[in-house]
Amino acid sequence: MIIFIQSSKIRNTSGTASCLFYKMIKLLNENVIFIEYLPAISEIKKIRDLLPGYNIICADKNKNNKGLIISTFPQLPKYGIDVSLGSLYSRFFGRLFMKAIFTIIKESLDKEQKENLVFIFHPLIYRDCRELLNKNGKIIYYILDDWADITENKKLKKIISYYETELIKKSFCVFAVSDLLKEKYAYLNKEIVVIPNGVDANKFIKKKYSKYLKYKDKKPIIGFVGTLGTWVDTELIIKISKNFKNAKIVLVGRDLIGLKNLIEKEKLTNINYLGPIDHEQVPDIISIMDVCINPFNNSITARYSSPIKVYEYLAMGKQVVTSYIDVLKRELYNHIFIAQSHGEFINYISDILYKNVRKSPPDINLFSWESRLKDIINYMKLKGILI
Q1: Which of 91, 113, 159, 161 is least surrounded by CB atoms within 10 angstroms?
Q2: 61 CB-contact burial (10 Å; exposed 0-12 / middle 13-18 / buried 19+)
Q3: What angle do CA 62, 110, 97 make, to 5 degrees?
């Protein structure tokens, strides 16, 4: 039996864990379980709508009866809650509910005589239930980010680093989304394989109509879709806005850096910040963009990342300009414009808009979640983890 344990939203099917779960159900003749570990309280209504009969655990079987979604007790609200209190809460309820979940799983395993393969996507999940995980099968750790680096709380940074080190050592094999993450942790585990993020190629297709056409006029649109976090290069966004005054800059996503204040302060009147949108609408907004950008800074978080948005841009047939990111250069060098400086970034945008310079489109199926999952499955079969 294959078990995914993730602390993010199962309904956001664009995320790595969610996509792999849904695709694995279709590709393998195996029972696959997704445990949504300590979801946000704001998500509980959605969980109840998706999974009727919510109590300790709740489950929703896939149509072919091979997929099972389990949701544990919700976490505390993040804001206004002391970190140590939140940590104690998650550990107590995490252990309580994981024990109940693994009891149910074990009963199923006793009949099937198979060993668990447990995919984990965050070190704190391992911390909260590592005894259960170590007893209930082989652990496979999937490193999506440099978790300690993106955590602002110093105490939590140390906790994450400590348990991530143990987790990597104990894992039967480790997958990482970038070469730099592999290099960082290679001394802890020799079985680290790079599997970058991907795209749902069937969802991100060219559209004839978009609800965002009202933003489209004679002015070209330069667009970004994604979380506006500390890894986003705000200085570069300002320069783009000032260098392309006859263009519209459309930015979409959660604002974690005070972007609205920055726009007002710098009087960037050609920037349209639309805020966060439902992921189902992302193809619609990308469809109106003439140039799609990925303006990241030189932080560890940015350099170690594998931006899903770039693959989504390409799936929509868009020309893409990105800051330098190692995994993007290795995979997509012939298909995107990779800038080493602000000046290069702006020149690439200008070439696309005014000189009709183009990069050739890739075969997006090579970067689909199905393709990524096949790489994972082939590696696991090679190592004897899957038959």
Answers
A1: 113
A2: exposed
A3: 65
Residues 6+ apart with CB under 8 A from 133: 118, 120, 126, 139
Q: What is the pTM of this model?
A: 0.86
Tell me if 203 is assigned to some domain: no
The answer to whether 199 and 364 are in contact (CB under 8 A) is yes
Structure-token match 């602002």, residue found? 152
287, 233: one domain: yes
120 vs 387: CA distance, rounded Å: 21
In angstroms, the Cα distances linking 81 to 76, 95, 255 are: 8, 20, 21
Same domain, 373 and 294: no
SS3 142: strand
Token readout for 314 is 């390409």
Each residue's pLDDT tens digit, 199-230: 988 888 766 667 888 888 889 999 999 999 99
Q: Are residues 180 and 54 in the same domain?
A: yes
pLDDT, tens only, 136-192: 788 999 999 999 888 878 888 899 999 999 999 999 999 999 999 999 999 999 989
Residues 76 and 142 in one domain: yes
Instruction: Give 250's strand partners.
Output: 223, 272
Range of the domain at 292: 213-366
The total number of structural domains that make up the chain: 2
Burial (CB count <10 Å: 0-12, 13-18, 19+), residue 52: exposed
Residue 7 is assigned to a structural domain of this protein: yes
Token code pair at residue 94 = 């995490």
Residues 178 and 229 in one domain: no
Domain harbouring 192, CATH code: 3.40.50.2000
